[in-house]
């Protein structure tokens, strides 16, 4: 996503003459030409003539001032991704996306631009799935293209027969496909999280989402959810963040006015940058606009320590089956039995 945006910006500035002009060299040879209005610790503000662009400092390789041709140190250049860079056309290098890969999921390495819900839904909708079991259904989303997906523990609790409905956009039409060979990788009952993997033979590469962070969220910021409330797949609801620290049963949740209903459980809550900031998992039934989501930081912790939550029925200490708590000792009778 960032790759496409930065490439478009690089192509748009070609042919624009600004004299004198400052040059902001981005990573992988893309550059912006204009007038630098401000330089801050974490960002650079550039006037391109037709718009003012805020560039994250982490995306800048160097800055050349028009007056003194002064190079300002920014972020040290990094090595190109494996396999080199791909050309977007003759003489038009493509910028590597500003993403951080952890091996299982991907997160944004720098702030992404905000976009409309309509744009984001069309782009992210394929990564959101419906999770079905014999006893019910919920939602989920892919965290990488290999078929790993996240949902709530309560969606698949007590079940091993799981299927995943995936909706791919082909020729302007949605192509629904059900995958029935779904393996449970890890689960955490207390945080209500489960990691699944599709293992059907011939399964394609899947669309996936980026994980964001709640530190950058503000109360009142717009968010939206995609899921399958009451089985109505690919339903989109929009709202705001009501609070970031709603304490319930000893855990902190994101509270949102985005409508959450049974079937939304396990689905993603997105910000307007297209990043997952939470997993919708519950609502208050006696009110309206009182939905809750698990903060994405808990999801990251779960994924980073998934070995501790590995699914294994033979281990009574795992997250699937627990030992019974010790019962209170009964006082032994004092008399002798005849």
Record the SSE blueprint.
Elements: H1 2-13, E1 22-26, E2 31-39, E3 43-47, E4 52-56, E5 60-64, E6 71-73, E7 87-89, E8 92-93, E9 99-101, E10 106-108, H2 117-124, E11 128-133, E12 136-142, E13 148-151, H3 153-156, E14 163-170, E15 173-179, E16 182-188, E17 193-198, E18 210-211, E19 222-227, E20 235-248, E21 251-256, E22 268-271, E23 275-283, E24 291-295, H4 296-304
Parallel strand pairs: 18-23
Antiparallel strand pairs: 1-2, 1-5, 2-3, 3-4, 5-6, 7-8, 9-10, 11-12, 11-14, 12-13, 13-17, 14-15, 16-17, 19-20, 19-22, 20-21, 21-24, 22-23, 23-24
Descriptive notes:
With 338 residues, the chain is mainly β. Among the domains are: 2-97, Roll (SH3 type barrels); 210-300, Thrombin, subunit H (Beta Barrel). The chain is built from 4 helices and 24 strands. It has helices at 2-13, 117-124, 153-156, 296-304, and strands at residues 22-26, 31-39, 43-47, 52-56, 60-64, 71-73, 87-89, 92-93, 99-101, 106-108, 128-133, 136-142, 148-151, 163-170, 173-179, 182-188, 193-198, 210-211, 222-227, 235-248, 251-256, 268-271, 275-283, 291-295. The strands form 5 sheets. Strands 15-14-11-12-13-17-16 form a 7-stranded antiparallel sheet. A 6-stranded antiparallel sheet has the order 4-3-2-1-5-6. A hairpin with a 2-residue loop joins strand 20 (235-248) and strand 21 (251-256). The model is unreliable at 1-19, 68-97, 319-323 and 329-338 (pLDDT under 50).
